[in-house]
Structures
1.
Amino acid sequence: MGSNMAECHPVAFQWIVEAQRKGGKLIHVDPRFTRTSAMANLHVPIRAGSDIAFLGGLVHYILEQERYFRDYMVAYTNATTIIDERFLDTEDLDGFFSGWNEESGTYDTSSWQYEGGVIHASAGERGAPRPPADGIIIEGAPPHSDPTLEHPRCVFQLLRRHYSRYTPEMVERVCGVPQHKFLEVAETICDNSNRERTTAFVYAVGWTQHTVGVQFIRTSAIIQLLLGNMGRTGGGVMALRGHANIQGATDIATLFDVLPGYIQVPSVKDSSNLKQFCLDQGGAAGGYWGNLEAYLVSLLKAYWGDRATPDNQFGFDYLHRVTGDHSTYQSTLGMVDGWVKGFVVLGENPAVGSAHGGLHRKALRRLDWLVVRDLYEIETASFWYDSPETQSGEIRAEDVGTEVFFLPAAANAEKNGSFTNTQRLLQWHEQAVEPRGDCRSDLWFTYYLGAKIREKLAASTEARDRALLDLTWDYPLDPKSGDPSAEEVLREISGRGPDGQLLASFGALRADGSTSSGCWIYCGAFAGGQNLTNRKRPGQEQSWVAPEWGWAWPLNRRVLYNRASADPEGKPWSERKRFVYWDEAQGKWVGPDVPDFPGDRRPDYQPPPGATAENALSGDRPFIMQADGVGWLFAPSGVVDGPFPTHYEPQESPVRNLLYEQERNPARQVFRRRDNPYNPTAGEPGSERFPFVMSTYRLTEHHTAGGMTRFLSRLSQLQPEMFCEVSPELAQERGLRPGGWATISTERSVIEARVLVTARLPVLRLGDRVVHQVGLPYHWGSRGLSTGDSANDLFPLVLDHNVHIQETKAATCDIQPGRRPRVASR
Amino acid sequence: MKAERPSGGERQMVPSGKPRSYYGLPIVKRPAWTWEVPWYLFTGGTAGGLAAVSILARWTGEAKLGRRARRLALAGAVISPVLLISDLGRPERFLNMLRVFRPTSPMSLGSWTLAGFGSSLGAAEMADIVGLPNVVVGTLEGTAGILGPILANYTAVLLGDTANPIWRGGRTILPFVFSGSSMAAAGASLCVAGPTDEGVAARRMVVLGTIIEQASFLLMEQRLGPLAEPYHDGAAGRLVKLHRASSLAGATLISTLGGRSRKAAILGGALTLAGSAALRQCVYRAGFQSAADPRYLVDSQRGAATDPGDGNGSVT
Amino acid sequence: MTAAPTARRPAVSLPMWQGGGTRMGFFTDSSICIGCKACEVACKEWNGVPDIDTGFTGNSYDNTSSVGANSWRHVAFVERQRPDTGDGVQWLMNSDVCKHCTRAACLDVCPTGAIFRSEFGTVVVQDDICNGCGYCVVACPFGVLERREAPDGRAFKCTLCYDRLQVGDEPACAKACPTQSIQFGPLEELRERAEKRLEEVKQEPRYAGARLYGDSKDDGVGGFGAFFLLLDDPEVYGLPPKPVYRRTDLALLWGAASVAASVLTLGVLGSLSWRRR
Ligand SMILES: Nc1nc2c(c(=O)[nH]1)N[C@H]1C(S)=C(S)[C@@H](COP(=O)(O)OP(=O)(O)OC[C@H]3O[C@@H](n4cnc5c(=O)[nH]c(N)nc54)[C@H](O)[C@@H]3O)O[C@H]1N2
Ligand SMILES: Nc1nc2c(c(=O)[nH]1)N[C@H]1C(S)=C(S)[C@@H](COP(=O)(O)OP(=O)(O)OC[C@H]3O[C@@H](n4cnc5c(=O)[nH]c(N)nc54)[C@H](O)[C@@H]3O)O[C@H]1N2
Ligand code: SF4
Ligand code: SF4
Ligand code: SF4
Ligand code: SF4
Ligand code: SF4
Ligand SMILES: [Mo]
């Protein structure tokens, strides 16, 4: 769901094809009939943005038909946990949870806590919004729980109540999915989820790019926990990550608020005491985050080496402090508003790829300077003389004051390095050709930029410059190209012990400064001095888990939380599904994969009083990153918009929320400003002007904002022009001619596209309402060989507050035959 | 390089009914030849007919007619390769045709035939001019006379031995159409070129040739059934009309007034020649039309089972 | 070791493949083609095929339209109603290519000998010998061969990566195919595999129309060296339903031509001799 795997991940899709040949079934729930649907055993068209209603319907079905995997659920999830009596559900407050603060537009999550204490999430907004620190749950089972599942405030009962109205009829009316189809999906999934069988959910950005994106994913996690599909082979919730190395980029931290290995960047509100920070963030005990200090100190040692000492808290204060939301769209608005003056763009094309392209280009025009490092002179670099605004005459190149530096980058085949793929698998690649001309790798650029800055600051005595000057900035350089050694960088990331030897496991990391590791989850990638990411033993020559192909973080583990593949006593749930299990004779966990559990921890282990971190979890708690060691059906923290996923309409929707009075996610991130107008949504005056749902997506033939494909003739010829997809019915209604032109408009902008009339774009029937959809690939811009208008020009800025992702999968628009006006009206 | 945009783009997306096709796009390729080719079919065919006249007239003792026929044939034999070379683009490419002898390729055989035909005719002419003995001239002329009728209709084999539905469908009859037309054209060119009183044989050839040509064309159309549609539609259809009108008018004029009036003979001859040229043009053009619409190919291969209107089907 | 030419061997036997080495070919299984076009692109890259731009066609996701001189593989996208339930769409994809026919019309008709049968049983055009006569273009029953107008009108098609086979590598398109929809190997083996696969595919109600196309030695061209598993009639993929090419037809044709030539000769003779009487 929410992924077009065959088109966007064709290479990974071969495994789906193989599974199907072995009898596996593929269900594709997607607003469009795509190349994935073509391969699927069942395609279920759904209205974009309505997945929580659909998935909530599944939860309802599983609970009401008692199809959950009871033994698993009771033991491995927080179903039994009792929640604070102050907690009120959206059923009580018609679309709100308790704790809503209208003024700040955020929730106070204190009433969402477990009865008996406060708990921290293992990921997400771990610290903020910060609950009052009235204690942290640690020891063993949470204090208040009811294994009979009958307590009215236990998570199980709350969950039932929360989804009680998500019936098949409701699914049909909200999602446009006929009941029989929905029930077919529900039965197939439930029949395939038990001791003997597992079901996987696969998603990508069809789920994330919504104002409720994180909650889409949460709902599937709830389903998987109820059905016992987590931590087991063939189960899980699989995110298909985007760019080839986007997983690596996330791990090593490209976001403003995380450090490598998902350690939070301290905020200005945080204590400047390292120990206290680690206590606040990691929790005093319960789960592996209890070792945060060891991970963080090792990171600081990797950054600052000998200059990181106990005396200066290993350089903790060299780290920057977050002052607020500095996510990408905030920065864009900062440029528009003039408080961001310079911008360095590496490997990104926001003028095309980011929502509200017009606003982005306006932002770029307000800059003093801009650096773009890319393979081609993309739209983000050419905005000042080649953009919709210059073409329409609205902007003249002479009037743009931004100084643009374009630096040519070397592409992946022109450099060594590793990619971390969607399965957390690091794979090393060797340079195939020398980069041409002045093209240089990003590593080269970053290294020499750092070297230059340090050179300029060398004489500085300012305290603020110490962070830069004290950095370890010494890598062996290739004598010919001057490139720093990528392997050496990986060694540094993997980590070293006291005598400089390469570490084998993050378990060896220490908080005393004796170890260093640039990213604790990558620790061991270079164990024993061997680049484990460069292993390429063929699958046929090793076990089916293929541990000797590349290296997966953490510790080359291929299935996370695989302790859950055995029952609480450590026995496999079934012979067929035997994976990682307890071997009493050997006194350890065994199986074809690396156990995701302390290796010799007995299943009947009970933590002694005062135990911390993983030692504070009993031997039957598989989710070892969680403070309570279980999977969360109810999320007391970590998500800013509710402990249970709740159906809300997108910012712009042609229909009203049938479930709650509250139409949209109250905690979504909106920007009400004149240059970011929203279309009136259902129920607001003027909404009839934008009667259609529009959604954006990708094609196999192009890549994202086009920099890597629109300049290549072979790919351009396969999809030579921007187009839109409409159903024959909509084409008829609006007089759109196949192969002709259409103009699509929103409050932000007007674009044109060639028309592809196709029955693959279904007309959705919601009760007696008919909803037409307009499908828009978002790859195009004005540069390159294959050109066209950018779909992103149509979209507003409105974000999921958890992760600051834009809603580009569901919005409203109008479509008319013919080309857009050539000169934009101002 | 911008290729032609397929017309499928303007079609309704989900046409139903049969025969089915891929967006109405062609299945076999249309011919890659250029305008010279149908003219070559005409010049080669006419020259072939004339060469037969030249040697047969020698036997029947009409030396003057024979020589005229030979000279006219020679003109055709000179123009033909020029046309082919122009189609191929470069002279040495024609020589490449003679690189191998390929019995399975009508084009290979045809090239050798044309080469043999042209050289024997040329040699015969030279021999005649130089005054070599009659045997020599006669042998050379005879060679050309045997190759001539082959030259006149190997092109029908060439077209028939393709995947083109209309050519392939008419493949056993087309040689007769071409033969008849060559005969008529040979006669007609003699009518135009020579004095009326000498032209009895020529006039008979026109009439007989036209009858063979028209009758076998009709037969071919009938055999082709629905596949013959291109002969009624579009450019090919117009050329068929032109061909019939000119050929019939030419033959009529020649058979009625051709023996008395030189003007009538010239006009009738010209009409017949035009008709013969139009025949090659229409056959050639029909090949394009037949290849362009996959219906013909699918129909021809599926037979009646997929007649239009059958089934509710679907969909490309 | 395969594809013994059919019983009636034509009198003239020219480079028609008769065994020798192991005949290599393709089995393209359209039931697992995901339409990614990697094959199309890999082929163009490996073989340095010139760029084409056919523009936006509006025909589903197909903008290259057919196999031709500049697209030796071509992926067809067929949108149709789902046949078993009648509700909803089905989207079939298939990567078309030269069939490397057992009886190859192109090879037989080429007057220059530019086309030959390789030691792998494949049909290859030598572009340095081709003179652009265009005969193969009209002869191929599948519309595969095409002339490349620029620069000089010579004909091009899939070589079954002759250069790669010679060094023991598999063809570029097969290598690039992520789902193994394109399977390369000894033809006989592929045929067996295809039979099995067909049984598998037919189990699915929506694929009841599955069939092999070009696997049989008895079909109109003596079997393809590159055959297919299709899920619907060939014509909906732009393929001829019952392609024929029989060299024996040629005898018939020459027979007709000889009679017609005699008619011409006799007609002329008759016209001439009447006068005498
Ligand atoms: N060829 C190719 N491959 C790519 C990329 C590319 O551009 N081209 N990009 C890469 C990147 S960066 C990424 S992030 C991934 C993205 O991979 P995907 O997420 O698979 O890509 P999209 O096409 O954006 O969207 C997926 C599907 O979500 C559907 N969808 C939209 N809204 C909804 C909804 O509300 N609910 C449901 N259930 N489905 C919805 C769309 O119709 C679409 O089919 O692909 C990566 N791979
Ligand atoms: N409407 C809409 N908008 C979307 C999405 C959507 O589905 N719908 N998807 C979103 C998603 S998931 C993503 S990931 C973004 C992608 O959007 P962007 O990241 O803005 O777009 P890309 O085209 O992937 O930009 C990558 C650039 O990096 C360059 N590049 C490649 N290799 C290198 C290298 O080694 N070094 C350097 N310096 N440059 C290199 C490429 O030429 C290319 O221009 O788009 C987002 N925007
Ligand atoms: S482009 Fe690269 S990452 Fe994407 S599917 Fe192909 S091989 Fe995988
Ligand atoms: S498909 Fe056409 S080009 Fe290929 S071998 Fe057969 S006849 Fe020749
Ligand atoms: S175009 Fe070339 S390959 Fe084709 S038949 Fe003519 S010479 Fe042979
Ligand atoms: S075998 Fe080689 S030449 Fe033929 S289509 Fe595949 S890649 Fe192209
Ligand atoms: S590479 Fe394979 S899956 Fe992709 S289009 Fe070609 S045949 Fe189909
Ligand atoms: Mo992405």
Note: The longest helix of chain C spans residues 248-276.
2.
Amino acid sequence: MKILVCVSKTPDTTAKVAFKDGNTVYDESGVQFIMNPYDEWYALVRAVELVEAGGGSVTLINVGPAANDTIIRKGLAIGADEAVRIDAEPSSAYFVASQIAAYAKDQSFDLILLGKETIDYNGSEVGSMLAAMLDCPFVSYASELNVTGTEASISREIEGGTEVLSASLPLVISAAKGMAEQRIPNMKGIMGAKRKPLNVVAPVAVQERTRTVGFSLPEAKGAVKMIDPDNMEELVRLLHEEAKVI
Amino acid sequence: MVLVFAEHQNGPFKKAALEAVTWGSKAAAMMGTTCAAVVIGTPDQPEQLGHYGAKTVYQLNNAELNHFDQKSYTAAVVQLAKKIGASLLVFSHSSIGKSLLGSISVVLEAGSVSGVNTLPELDNGFVVGKNVFSGKAQAKIAIDTDIKVVSLTGNALQPEVVSQDAALVEGFTADLPAPAVKVLEQKTVQGITPLPEAELVVSAGRGVKDPANWGVIEDLADALGATTACSRPVADSGWRPHHEHVGQTGIAIRPNLYIAIGISGAIQHLAGVNNSKVIVVINKDTEAPFFKAADYGVAGDLFEVVPKLTAAVKQFKGQ
Ligand SMILES: Cc1cc2nc3c(=O)[nH]c(=O)nc-3n(C[C@H](O)[C@H](O)[C@H](O)COP(=O)(O)OP(=O)(O)OC[C@H]3O[C@@H](n4cnc5c(N)ncnc54)[C@H](O)[C@@H]3O)c2cc1C
Ligand SMILES: Nc1ncnc2c1ncn2[C@@H]1O[C@H](COP(=O)(O)O)[C@@H](O)[C@H]1O
């Protein structure tokens, strides 16, 4: 089975969020970057498990600048066989999906795995766009994925529950929690990753459809009002009369 | 024309659908056009969407659409959008909406923004707001294409009755590809509002210590008519189902009231809840970081405080 895993780079979950250039650009100074957790913990690890169990190969793809090679090597250390980096700034979901589609269109992958969303842009858009560009069925928020021959059985998260379904490969699938367990790369993986191929590919031209105009930070909360633990009637009164939420 | 994809739960419209129609009809008024809605299958009284501003409701009646299949839904909505000349498509930011947004925008050659939480600004193109960095910031994004596609975050605005008129209901049959997925089973919790739709949420963390102690949390939720949620370690250790896990790696919610009980308030937890309108924190540690994000705080042992709060809520409701 030939699997493509799309991974992105995001600020560490505890990174401070600030903007520069008149609030138009995310301020990366001092920010630690990581592989987007959904891509790493779920999509990539499950892809590696499926290939370990049934043979095939895992190709990891990232759209981004050379600085992303660190997280790409980490993906190789976790178990991807080779990596591709499309050498461009990932300026929008549409741009990213277009680049990945251009690369994947004549490579006949059986499975393309993504994370359910990036934790910075929170778009949840790339997977659905990519599927349409490749004219391939898409299953989002998969929390379980098994493959027998060319049939996949999948559980996916829906509001207030789960849905169990089956579908034939090829498929584009976005991964949510539950699909796999995080893997910490071991020494052998880290050493091996240095020798695995990382191909840098030039981007295709894309006409952007959206533009980020600017960012803002939420207003700071006022000070918390502390309520006497023995006077819960007061809390209920405030929630009703002051906050007007009950 | 603005076209709103209005979701229902085997009959009753989801609150998110009424929000989306409200948003769509307001946007339509600003753009000098009208708002229509599309529904799949047979919601209860589709004409009621007229009250929220939809002039027409297109009812897609292909039997193949009974189960969600991303490919057939994409094809069906695209055909309708083309037929009525939709220039703005509005989805709920739900599992279905998020699955369709990208594919439909690609097929319609439209620009898209997911998770929108403001009405569009039109004085300089078409600009909408959305949360980024898991709620830690807000971005303004311009869509530069003729056709635009958005999904609307839950609870970003309230459904608003703007008209006494019923919408005109029209059937529409799409020409569909064979479904790509076969839905075998759906397991949903019945009878309670799903978390993304809930206005009141009672959430608990590791402070509850043991799944057997969850009764106090459920009693409070029952008294309030709230939906329950939990922190990640609680879901990870199997104390509570995964779909209750809120935060960075779980789901993001923005209810009117979020009561956090025995949750420390780690940044990854806050990422999923800091857009709640009002936050109440109950924690025995006065230094718990969550108090900094709270509107109301109670420093005390949850096993004493929560039953008292439940009693006070019951007394209030009994009045
Ligand atoms: C990449 C990443 C992603 C993550 N994503 C998420 C996420 O999506 N959601 C999430 O929740 N976490 C997430 N986490 C984990 C997060 O960092 C915290 O570890 C977690 O939220 C802590 O859960 P908790 O508050 O329930 O437990 P704890 O941190 O153990 O806090 C328990 C709290 O209960 C209080 N308490 C104890 N006993 C009582 C009592 N009797 N009465 C009152 N209060 C009491 C304590 O004072 C304490 O504040 C993530 C972590 C990482 C690294
Ligand atoms: N720059 C990128 N390179 C490769 N894959 C990406 C990139 N950005 C996003 N993705 C993939 O698309 C998924 C969804 O991203 P998003 O639509 O931005 O929420 C991520 O979880 C990744 O799997």
Note: Chain B touches chain A through 96 residues (CB under 8 Å).
